[in-house]
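Anyone? Bumping this.
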Amino acid sequence: MARKREFDEEHVLQQVVNLFWQKGYEATSMSDLTTATGLQKPSLYAAFGDKQALFEAALRRYNHQHAQRMDRLLQQDKTARQSFARLFQYVTQSDDQHQTEYGCFCINTMVELAPHDERFAVLTREHQMYLSALFTRRLERAIVEKELSSDYDAQAHAQTLVAGMLGLTVMLKTNPDPTFIHATTNILLSSLLP
Amino acid sequence: MARKREFDEEHVLQQVVNLFWQKGYEATSMSDLTTATGLQKPSLYAAFGDKQALFEAALRRYNHQHAQRMDRLLQQDKTARQSFARLFQYVTQSDDQHQTEYGCFCINTMVELAPHDERFAVLTREHQMYLSALFTRRLERAIVEKELSSDYDAQAHAQTLVAGMLGLTVMLKTNPDPTFIHATTNILLSSLLP
DNA sequence: TTTATTTTATACCAATCGGTATATAATTTA
DNA sequence: TAAATTATATACCGATTGGTATAAAATAAA
C-alpha cells in the first residue's frame, strides 16, 4: 500500500464543526479551515470533498452529537417538568461557550442555507423532527407515569416546545436582558407542562 | 448648484432590502446590488456608504415597516386571541412571497451578524423589544376589556409570544409539514391566551 | 454662456475566493 | 531493496470580492 494519513479525521472534523458553527458557511473560507485544522487544502479536499461536502459532514456530525445530548438531558430527571427545565437551562445558560455564544449549528443552517438549498432544508428539518420525536417520547412517558393527564396531546406540545427552544436560542444571539429569557422560559414551562 | 440624482433613494433602498432579506449579508455582493438596483457602484457608495452601512440602512427600513405591520395586525380584531391568531396566520401563511420564503430579515440578521457585530446585536435586540412592547400593550388592553384575568402577566406572556413567533418563523425555512405548524400555532395560542 | 459643482459611467485596483496541477516525501507490498 | 501507491506541501489558476480613481456628462448659479 502506501503512506498513512497523519491526522485523525474525527478530530479534524470537530474543528471544522466549531468553525462553521461559529461563522457560518459563507463567512468561513477554505483558508480559515486550513489554519484551524492545520491541514493543507489538498488534504481537506481529498478527505471530505469540496466546501459544501465538508460543511455537510460537519453538520451531520453536529446533529448526531446534539441529538444525543438532548436525549441525555431528558432522561436525567424524574418528571417531564424537571427534564425540560433542565433542557432549557442548558440551552440558555450552558457553560459550553459555543452553545451560548453561537447558538445551535443546525438552527444557524436553517436560516443561512435551508431556504436556498433543498438538501440542507431536508437535513435540518429531519433534525427538528428527530428532536420533536424525542420530546414526544418524554411527554408520553410522563402521561404513563400520571404526571400529565391522559388527554394531553404529547406530540403537539412537543412540537411547541421545540419551537420555543428554537425561538429562545435565536433570541439569545442579541444578548437580551436575562430576565427576558427567564420569564419566557418560565411561561413556556408552566403553560406547556400544566 | 449641480446635477440632480436620477434615482429615488427610497425605491432603491427597498430593492436593497429585498436582496439582503433574501440572500443575507455575506452571500450578497455589491455586483448583485448594482444589477438589482440598476445603479452603478459609485452611485451606491455615494448615497449610502459602504456595504455594511447599506445593509444597516436596509435593516432599519425593514424593521420600521415590519413594526408597523405587526401593530396594524394587532389592532384589527376585538379580542387578543383573534389578534394573535391573525398575526400567527400572517407569519405562517402570508401571501407575501418574501415573508414565507425568506422569513424575517431581522431574524436572519440576528443569526448571521448579531453574534459577531455588536451594532447589529443592538439593532436587532431593540426591534425584538419593540415587538414585545407592542404585544404587551395588546395583552394589557385585553385585561382591561376583561378578556384576560387581572393577574395575567402581560409582559411575560408577550415575550413568550415573541419567542414563539420567532421559533415558528425559523422552523418554516425547512418546509415542515403544515400540520406541524398548525399544531404548534394552536397550542401556543390556547396555552398563552387562556 | 461661462463657471462651478455634482452625478454618472468606465475602467481599474489589490486581495481573496474556491479549487487544483505538480512534484516531493513517505510508506507498504513484492 | 525496488516498485507502486498515497499523502503532503508548494505554487498556482481564473474568477470574483469590496472599493475607488478618473473623467465625461449634466445642471445649477453667475
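Late reply, but here is one note on the structure posted above: Chain B has a mean pLDDT of 95.
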